[in-house]
Write a structure and sequence with these properties.
single chain, 334 residues, alpha/beta, Spore Coat Polysaccharide Biosynthesis Protein SpsA, Chain A, 2 domains, ten-stranded mixed sheet, 14 helices, 48% helix, globular
């Protein structure tokens, strides 16, 4: 039963340092017809107390506690519990601009779109970068044109810069894959297979905060196989965009092998690289990929060289940028 216009779903796990500000940024929205579903996913810090205090002060909050099951399970639980006509997602260590919900809701009402997407700001200390695309509409007719841009700018993958029509999501049966990584990417790409109209707003309405030490410090062996699976879904959606899909494959390849330096010796990374460069998948992606801009062209050129030493050095440099010079890394990635 619909009792409000929007259900905002917020997973919480060990977020005491940022949680109150995140909750306040939702409660301070200029649009007020929403419920905030907060799920404490087994936190052992003071997150539970912060959530309970907020719920006591604002009747729009519905608070849930559960054993730790991961962010995907929490979001799926939220989709089931939601009583709003639309769904929105917010992370417990980010901030929402005051007009986040109002802008997305007004665009959804005006267009009838199943999904409305906005830009966001990446904030690292005093450094703020806007990530956005020009306002417009994406549907089956222009998917091959619009989706590559949204993917390259990382606007398609996250759920927190979007408003979803609840009955559309439930009707598709698409869920966040539980027990996996990069579940956001899978969720959003699978929804596109059901031919929604996606309305794009150029406004940057969400603040993605980069906290010191927030990036992972161990290599997850699931990363490379999972990202390959995500590219397979992208290829299903964009059968006429093989060069772009190949480029995404290469980006994921570099990212995965750069992260290996978190846990593996240089010798082991080199061994794995050497084996990967002999595969047909790598050869096909390296010679089929097309990227826009100097940085993209450089990544393709390095891949085409198939030089273990050159690719190893590039992955090592990527690792240092990402984990030692985080601000510069996100500026380059943008």
């Amino acid at each position: 039963m619909t009792v409000c216009k929007i259900s905002v779903i917020m997973p919480v796990f060990q977020a005491q340092a940022y949680l109150k500000d995140a909750i306040d940024s939702v409660l301070s929205q200029s649009y007020s017809d929403f419920e905030l579903l907060i799920f404490n996913d087994g936190s052992t810090d003071k997150s539970g107390a912060i959530c309970r205090a907020a719920a006591e002060q604002d009747k729009r909050i519905r608070y849930f506690e559960q054993e730790n099951r991961g962010q995907a399970a929490v979001r799926n639980h939220g989709i089931r519990e939601a009583r709003g006509e639309y769904l929105a997602f917010a992370d417990s260590d980010d901030l929402c601009r005051p007009d986040w919900l109002r802008t997305l809701f007004d665009r959804a009402q005006a267009t009838g779109a199943e999904i409305v997407l906005c830009g966001y700001q990446t904030v690292s200390g005093e450094t703020v970068s806007d990530v956005f695309s020009a306002s417009g509409t994406m549907n089956d007719r222009n998917l091959s044109e619009k989706l590559p841009e949204l993917k390259q700018k990382n606007l398609m993958d996250p759920p927190w810069n979007k408003l979803y029509r609840t009955d559309f999501v439930r009707r598709t049966g698409v869920q966040f894959p539980e027990g996996e990584i990069y579940e956001d990417t899978e969720f959003n790409l699978r929804l596109l297979q059901y031919h929604p109209t996606v309305e794009i707003c150029s406004e940057c309405l969400y603040c993605y905060l980069l906290h010191a030490g927030s990036t992972t410090r161990r290599y997850d062996e699931r990363k490379w196989p999972t990202l390959q699976k995500r590219v397979a879904v992208l290829r299903e959606l964009l059968p006429d965009c093989s060069p772009f899909c190949d480029y995404c494959w290469l980006r994921f390849f570099y990212s995965s092998f750069a992260d290996m330096f978190l846990s593996l010796s240089g010798k082991e990374v080199r061994r794995r690289l050497k084996a990967q460069l002999k595969t047909e998948e790598f050869y096909s992606a390296a010679h089929g990929a097309v990227g826009q801009g100097m940085a993209a062209k450089l990544t393709v050129w390095i891949a085409k060289s198939r030089s273990v030493g050159l690719i190893y050095s590039f992955c090592r440099m990527t690792f240092w940028l990402k984990y030692k010079m985080q601000k510069l890394f996100f500026r380059v990635r943008k």
